[in-house]
UniProtKB/TrEMBL annotation, chain A:
Cellular compartments annotated: Cell membrane; Membrane
The name this protein goes by in its record: Cation:proton antiporter
Family the entry assigns: Belongs to the CPA3 antiporters (TC 2.A.63) subunit D family.
Record carries keyword Membrane: yes
Source organism of this protein record: Neptunicoccus cionae
GO cellular component entries: plasma membrane
Automatic annotation (TrEMBL), chain B:
Single GO BP term: ATP synthesis coupled electron transport
Family: Belongs to the CPA3 antiporters (TC 2.A.63) subunit D family.
Record-annotated membrane-spanning stretches: 20-37, 44-65, 89-110, 122-142, 148-168, 180-202, 222-243, 250-272, 292-314, 321-340, 383-406, 426-445, 465-485
This protein's record includes keyword Cell membrane: yes
Membrane topology: Multi-pass membrane protein
Molecular function, one GO term: NADH dehydrogenase (ubiquinone) activity
Organism of origin: Neptunicoccus cionae
Protein name: Cation:proton antiporter
UniProt entry tagged with the keyword Ribosomal protein: no
Domain spans labelled NADH:quinone oxidoreductase/Mrp antiporter transmembrane: 144-439
């Protein structure tokens, strides 16, 4: 099949899954099986796009013209393809996990849940393949709106409050700042296409460059740059599969992915480096990295701790962009994949613990590791990858970011990255240590067993993924290099 | 003018008579409904008239999309002596909106009116409805200033009656109708005083002729007074904040079907008249150089956007909230005018249409909710989104369009408006526009939470609205999405209209390039 058909399939199969969920709302097994097939086929379609990449020049597919000169158009480029692979690949894993979690936990409204989930995946793939900012913005908002019901899923007052924060921050920043930035860019440059090297060079100068960058950086609320990070912890009221796939992978990665796209294809790294417009952003990102690590350290609720850890890790990508060096941007791009694999493992483990014990606070999880060895070993591997230790994927992105910081002559950022690693060590490893080593004589968890297989096999699987990513990071870097616009 | 009068008066094909048919069909239907006196036939005739109007307005728009205009001489009397109907992109676009809404509302009204109004009043209700349609179409189609006033009164008087029909559900509809009557009459009187002054100065009532004679009269105090009277008079009809006081009560207490129709069309027709007088009768230079209208309009527009939105946030009744939201949205249209550029006017024109269909969808959802839960206070419609999934989803779509989320019609309006602000180097206005849409997020999301995140009220009927309501509602909601993605029709027409309006007097030039009964020219 040619690339165009495959892209359409990747976009439409999740939508088909949504209709399937609505049609077979009452037949549990048929519905979930159908979604699984759709998920596998979606991943297959994205793989097909990857396979085709070598033998066809990437061309733009114009769907329709929304406004004169402004098209809804799709295009394949390495960074987007990587994001699409991550999102669709992990969808399969999360779907299996979600089945175990939702059934094991007796959650309600399965059909609505999986329907919204599918739409969100479609939107993420749309973001990945967007050929211009307008298309990207369209899918960005679809992603926001389609995940709102997932956050509010439980319908408790707490869930409603969380969902309100979630929607308020994401829609608010995107309409007030992101949209303004997009229209401003269009007025300045006359186009919104993603062009290697950027479109703003020579169109805007002086103080306006950092202001415009600021509108983008804060407007892309999904990147959770402080002070617009509040939605992420608030979204933790959602069932864990949502936190795992959407709030560790699809939604947040859509944010930082957009950030990279804007930096690389709208501003251009060289333009940012020449004007120094992103220096301030570097400091904000550094602050976010450290501050949210410290907040994470203080959380007792495991999911909230992971959420703040996510806020911190997302800013690695923003930092990589703000360094405005090729190594920095490459490190940021790798971080998208590496952090996705690591963090989804951690979230799925947290969910598995919740299903097995209905405990969500770390202080209540003493000695659990011996009852749930698979879950805890997977958690350990994921945690080590987040911290950035070899032989796990996370070490490469951190390495490249540090090289990028050195290239940009901002040695202090190396210190920030190292401090952050130490902080994540101190808030992630105690969870595991407590699980295995500390036990009270009246351990209440003696009768506890592993969660259902559907719940603990997927995190084991993604934990192995962290190791594989370490081994193949070189291939990934090679694959992403065209993004930087340098001759190979 | 010369070419038009030289050609002999020959009735050509039906196509050439479209401009008058636009008004004549509903005008003749109204008395026919009363004469036949049967309520089933009444609905059928009204619907037929609406469908025919829709066909006519669509054909008209197709003819003028290229920027030309049609000049139709009533009874063959050439203007400025005779009455002229003049169709160009600007009014053809509004005609389409009005007749489209009428066609959608009538099937919806069948069930809604049966529920809210006793059967004995139905015949007269549909007769009045047809008269409102006549009046609105006439106001927009005509090129004669006094004719505007006449049609304005036809539509207004019939509207007052329609609003008062809400009395069977809530007696306050009577006082709402009375308020509207007083305010509307003041507005119409101001308008006719303005026309009088213009007639005094120019000796003509034909708008195009008037425009020619007003050239260079910028310092004439009578003309300036006329301008002030017309703007304030029409401002009352448009419900420019703070001349909006009649609107919330009228929208809130009118029968559901009437609210749908009014919200989508009546302020829009008045807005069109305002535009036509500002840009075509008075020249843009007159408006913007000598009168500093920018500095008067823009603050009121911004005030409407923020004050009315803020009031909407604190409402506890869905229908009333939407009424305040309408006032806020009128602010966007005014802002587009005050930016004084083709892009700005395009924004006004396209928002006129987009907001029309958005509010049509939302008010139809209100009607469906009224049918099932009795009223639309938030504590009463709790959880209704769960038992009425189609209605609930329409509210979500309409709400997204109101907020301006991409993929909806509202987004297009907002995009063009913000772009116009940037082009005018008014970046702070651009920021205010997006900031005010955040208020829309708040007031719409309150409703969506109420509809979905609570258990349904026990006294409400837990059933989806009948198909006769759901289908029109979904056509309107679907249009919100369609025109958010494919904008060739809306933006094309709005852009042509804006260019024509910015052309000022030239846009109304009296010399059609093609002679004949009908002139077509630039």
């Amino acid at each position: 099949m040619d690339t165009n058909t495959l892209i359409f399939l990747a976009l439409l199969l999740p939508v088909l899954a949504m209709f399937g969920n609505m049609a077979f709302a009452k037949q549990d097994n048929l519905r979930d099986g159908f979604t699984f097939v759709c998920a596998v086929l979606t991943f297959g379609a994205v793989l097909g796009v990857l396979a085709n990449l070598g033998n066809s020049t990437s061309q733009e597919i114009v769907l329709l013209e929304m406004l004169p000169g402004l098209q809804i158009a799709l295009q394949v480029e390495p960074l987007g393809l990587m994001f699409a692979l991550v999102a669709s690949g992990l969808w399969i894993v999360t779907h299996i996990y979600g089945l175990g979690y939702m059934r094991g936990n007796n959650e309600k409204h399965h059909a609505r849940f999986f329907a919204c989930f599918s739409v969100a995946i479609s939107a993420a793939i749309g973001i990945a393949f967007s050929a211009n900012l307008l298309t990207l913005f369209l899918f960005y908002e679809v992603l926001t709106v389609s995940t709102y019901p997932l956050v509010a899923h439980k319908g408790t007052p707490e869930a409603i409050r969380g969902a309100r924060t979630y929607l308020g921050v994401l829609i608010g920043t995107s309409i007030a700042l992101f949209l303004t930035a997009i229209i401003w860019t269009y007025t300045l440059a006359g186009t919104l296409d993603f062009v290697p090297g950027g479109i703003l060079q020579g169109k805007v100068e002086g103080l306006l460059v950092p202001i415009l960058l600021g509108l983008f950086a804060f407007g892309i609320g999904k990147a959770a740059l402080m002070p617009f990070h509040r939605w992420l912890p608030a979204a933790m009221v959602a069932p864990t599969p949502v936190s795992a796939l959407l709030h560790a992978v699809a939604v947040v990665k859509a944010g930082v992915f957009t950030m990279l796209k804007v930096g690389v294809y709208t501003f251009g790294i060289d333009f940012l480096a020449d004007t120094g417009a992103s220096d301030w952003l570097m400091w904000i990102a550094a602050y976010t990295i450290l501050a949210s690590s410290i907040v994470a350290y203080q959380q007792d609720n495991l999911k909230r701790r992971l959420a703040y850890s996510t806020v911190s890790q997302l800013s690695y990508v923003t930092l990589g962009l703000a360094l405005a060096t090729q190594m920095g941007v490459m490190g940021g791009a790798l971080q998208i994949a590496m952090h996705a694999m690591g963090k989804i493992t951690l979230f799925m483990c947290a969910g598995a613990i919740y299903v097995a014990t209905h405990k969500s606070n770390i202080s209540q999880m003493k000695g659990l590791g011996r009852s749930m060895p698979f879950t805890y070993i997977a958690f350990l591997i994921g945690a080590l990858s987040i911290i950035g230790l070899p032989p796990l994927g996370g070490s490469w992105s951190k390495w490249l970011l540090m090289v990028g910081a050195a290239d940009a002559d901002h040695q202090i950022m190396i210190g920030v990255l190292m401090a952050s690693s130490l902080l994540s060590l101190s808030y992630l490893l105690p969870v595991v240590a407590q699980g295995f080593f500390s036990s009270s004589p009246d351990n209440p968890y003696n009768g506890i067993k592993e969660a259902p297989a559907f719940c603990y096999i997927p995190p084991v699987f993604t934990a192995i993924g962290c190791v594989i990513l370490f081994l193949y990071a070189g291939t990934l870097v090679e694959f992403l290099t065209p993004m930087l616009g340098v001759p190979q | 003018m010369a070419t038009a009068s030289e050609t002999p008066h020959i009735a050509l094909t039906l196509r050439d008579h479209l401009p008058i048919l636009q008004v004549l069909v509903p005008l003749c239907t109204a008395p026919l409904i009363v004469l036949l006196g049967d309520r089933r036939i009444a609905w059928g005739l009204a619907f037929l008239a609406a469908v025919l109007s829709l066909v006519v307005s669509f054909l008209l728009l197709m003819q003028v999309m290229d920027g030309s205009f049609i000049s139709y001489h009533l009874g063959g009397w050439a203007p400025p002596i005779g009455i002229e109907y003049r169709i160009d992109a600007a009014n053809a676009f509004v005609l389409l909106l009005i007749s489209l809404t009428a066609t959608l509302v009538l099937p919806f009204a069948l069930r809604s009116v049966a529920d809210e109004i006793p059967a004995r009043s139905h015949t007269l209700f549909y007769a009045c409805f047809t008269l409102v349609l006549t009046g609105l179409l006439g106001v927009v189609a005509t090129g004669d200033a006094f004719n505007v006033f006449v049609f304005l009164e036809i539509s207004s008087l019939a509207t007052y009656v329609l609003v008062s029909q809400g009395l069977y559900r809530d007696k306050r509809a009577l006082s709402a109708a009375y308020d509207y009557l007083i305010m509307g009459t003041i507005g119409a009187t101001f308008f006719v005083i303005g026309i009088g002054f213009l007639y005094m100065t120019t000796g003509t009532l034909n708008m195009a002729d008037m425009a020619e004679r007003l050239v260079g009269q910028g310092d004439n105090r009578t003309v300036q007074a006329a301008f002030a009277f017309i703007v304030v008079g029409m401002g009352l009809k448009v419900a420019i904040y703070p001349l909006h006081l009649w609107l919330p009560a009228a929208y809130n207490y009118a029968p559901s079907a009437v609210t749908v129709f009014l919200a989508a069309t009546s302020t829009k027709a008045a807005m069109y008249v305002l535009l036509r007088f500002m840009f075509s009768v008075f020249q843009p230079e007159f408006v913007f150089d000598t009168n500093l209208l920018l500095w008067i309009l823009a603050p009121f527009a911004l005030l409407a956007m923020f004050a009315a939105s803020l009031i909407a946030v604190f409402q506890t009744n869905f229908k009333r909230m939407l009424a305040y939201s309408s006032i806020a949205q009128i602010g966007y249209m005014l802002l587009g005018i005050s930016l004084f550029s083709v892009t700005g006017l395009s924004a006004t024109m396209v928002h006129l249409f987009n907001h029309g269909i958005t509010k049509a969808a939302l008010f139809m959802a209100v009607g469906a909710l009224v049918l099932r839960s009795g009223n639309t206070f938030y504590d009463r419609i709790e959880g209704m989104g769960r038992v009425m999934p189609l209605t609930g989803a329409a509210v979500v779509l309409g709400g997204l369009s109101l907020i301006g989320v991409p993929g909806t019609a509202g987004f297009i309006s907002k995009w063009v408006l913000v772009q116009a602000a940037f082009e005018a180097d008014l970046w702070w206005v651009a920021l205010l526009i997006v900031a005010s849409s955040l208020l829309a997020v708040i007031y719409m999301w309150r409703v969506i939470e109420v509809l979905y995140l609570h258990t349904p009220h026990p006294e409400a009927i837990h059933k989806e609205a009948p198909l006769s309501m759901v289908i029109p509602m979904w056509i309107a909601a679907g249009a919100c999405v369609w025109f958010g993605i494919d904008t060739s029709l809306t933006m094309g027409a709005a852009n042509t209209a804006a260019i024509g309006l910015m052309g000022g007097t030239d846009g109304m030039a009296l010399t059609p390039t093609v002679g004949g009964l009908l002139g077509t020219g630039h």
